[in-house]
Amino acid sequence: MDKTMATPLHLIKKRRIKRFYLMITLFFVIIQLLWVGIPIFMAIMWSLVNPDDAWSYPNLIPPSFSLEQWRYVFNYTNIARALKTSYSIAPLAVILSFLLSLPTSYVLGRKNIPGKKVFMLIVLLPMIMPGMVVALFLSRVFNLMGLSQTFFGLVLAHTLMSMPYMIRVMTTSFASIPQDVIDAAENLGAGTFVKIKDIFLPMIRPGLIAGMIFAFTTSIEEFNLTFIIGTPTFETIPTILYSFMGYNFIRTNASVVSLLMMTPNIIMLFIVERFLKSDYLSASLGKM
Prior knowledge:
There is one protein chain. The chain has twelve helices and no strands. By secondary structure, the protein is an all-alpha fold. It has two domains: 3-47; 78-284, MetI-like (MetI-like fold). The radius of gyration is 25 Å and the shape is flat. The termini are far apart. The relative contact order is 0.11.
């Protein structure tokens, strides 16, 4: 007897659906490997090119490897100072962005106010406007306020660029909190502080961390505002990177700087992703 005929129809459909999902997953994994893996691999290869043994077509990998490109970047650029500046500005911008975004996100997520959708659109405008246009307009304001060429001015500028991401993510987190939970806490006599500590903060924690990731990476990668407002007094990793780009595109040195900018972000992403998984697990077990 044919095994296909003996198998129930719903099991056949279930296997086909499972096979379809497996193919879709495999497809997206391959796309990610091509989209992310190949550029990272090429950046690593270009950063290790031996200047005395050029890499050109048809060689798939450099004929020989050397750390000379890394030595050049660290010896003849201000990359060490740029790293210190970038990783000093980014955490401060994240903290300031969180403090400024928290009340706005709460109101947008929990309150029904007139014109909320219009206000939300205005808040998100910096995300869709060209970065250089925003930088040129803000530079005039910063000049009038005496904030150009200052460290605080750079922190404030990076905060303004990070806030839309923080507000968007945290607003969604606040809106997703069930009102029944808040009502139950109030019926049990919970005050404002207790609700913030035991309900709001634990429930928005995954969104808060996601918003911090967006804010941090936005600050690390921000070039336009830093270039217009901070240079030449302050240099960050992107300003060093863009110095190797343009008419005299130096691919090898640009690859070194791009890896220096990208590697800490990837490590942080994996750490936070692991933390978020444990957060969701705690939430499902009722421990948050």
